[in-house]
Design a protein that fits this description.
There is one protein chain. This protein is mainly α. It contains 13 helices and 3 strands; from the N terminus they run αααααααβββαααααα. It folds into 2 domains: 106 residues, Tyrosine recombinase, N-terminal domain (DNA polymerase, domain 1, Orthogonal Bundle); 176 residues, Orthogonal Bundle (hpI Integrase, Chain A), CATH 1.10.443.10. Helix content is 54%, strand content 3%. A hairpin with an 8-residue loop joins strand 2 and strand 3. The longest helix is centred in the first third of the chain and has 22 residues. The protein is elongated. The termini are far apart. Belongs to the 'phage' integrase family. Site-specific tyrosine recombinase, which acts by catalyzing the cutting and rejoining of the recombining DNA molecules. Pfam families: Phage_int_SAM_1, Phage_integrase.
């Protein structure tokens, strides 16, 4: 079993190449400090394991597909890494070797044909696809005020990845159309973050906001029937199930959170957005979610959400 050393590399040549790649992430791709740190952790551990197993003369250029396969197997058997963790490690390795091949450090990419670890069905999140989203929107009668509001909520859930509690806590002032951002000020754990407005969502929110201003509303999704003055999660769950059935969509779960899973899955599996950027967009607790941090990475977050085309 190799040492779990994430902070330093024990081979100078390997370290130089990894650090060159990390500089590429930081300066050329303008990745966030958290993203760079995550790749460093994965690649240092990968390098140290291979060096301990194969000897100090091993370099990234001498690695073959079998070395990577054995490393992933080692993570599973010796470190009890879950499939999702091994997927993240493999993503780091694939990105690293893509950089090396593009810059002629290696002739062949040894990770190219390595298959992604499979996730047991019990661990796989249920999610709506882009096609599901379009069917659900198509099942809504948007000519009515209620149907129109419901469609906007579904647009927001699928194209921002917000939790239902976050979406329903939005106020009109949180939607900054000039900067094209949503200020999530009442996130989980009272954490704040910024989510760029997707290019397909922008006209929807622009028109909807105009309608709301006529009634001088404060909440983005108001409700006169609710004691809080805004729509409740239970109400959203009910109409989502109704529209799913009307659209002929059957899932193990049909809830607001399934749209959040759809947002993340589409970005990661279909568009190749790195997990740390997705975690920032989702407001996961293992990332810095202050407004200042989100602002410094707004450019990258915007490019991520805009990858979903409708």
């Amino acid at each position: 079993m190799c040492k779990t050393n994430y902070q330093a590399i024990i081979n100078l040549q390997w370290g130089r190449i990894v650090d060159m790649y990390l500089l590429h992430l930081q300066h050329d791709l303008e990745r966030s400090p958290e993203t760079v740190s995550g790749y460093r952790k994965d690649l240092y551990h990968f390098g140290n394991c291979l060096i301990e197993h194969n000897g100090p003369e091993i370099t990234p250029q001498k690695i073959g597909p079998m070395d990577i396969w054995l490393y992933l197997r080692h993570l599973s058997l010796d470190h009890n890494y879950a499939p999702r963790s091994r997927i993240r490690n493999l993503a780091s390795i694939k990105s690293f070797y893509k950089f090396l091949k593009n810059n002629d450090y290696v002739k062949k990419d040894p990770s190219a044909n390595i298959q992604w670890p499979s996730i047991p069905q019990s661990e796989q999140p249920v999610f709506f696809t882009v096609q599901d989203f379009k069917k659900i929107i198509g099942a809504i009668n948007t000519s009515t005020k209620t149907g129109y509001t419901h469609s906007v909520i579904i647009y927001v859930l699928f194209l921002t990845g917000l939790r239902i509690s976050e979406a329903l806590s939005l106020k009109l002032k949180d939607i900054d159309l000039r900067k094209k951002i949503i200020n999530v000020t009442r996130g989980k754990g009272r954490k704040k973050r910024i989510v760029p407005i997707n290019k397909a969502l922008y006209p929807v929110l622009k028109d909807y906001k105009k309608e709301l201003k006529k009634g001088k509303e404060d909440w983005l999704f108001p409700s006169k029937r609710s004691v809080t003055g805004r729509m409740t999660p239970q109400n959203v769950r009910l109409f989502i199930k109704k529209y799913c059935r009307k659209a002929g969509i059957e899932k193990a779960k049909m809830s607001p959170h399934v749209f959040r899973h759809g947002f993340a899955t589409t970005l990661y599996m279909d568009k190749g957005v790195d997990l740390l950027r997705i975690a920032t967009l989702l407001g996961h607790s293992n990332t810095r979610t202050t407004e200042i941090y989100a602002h410094t990475n707004e450019k990258h977050l915007r490019s991520a959400v805009d990858l979903i085309d409708l």
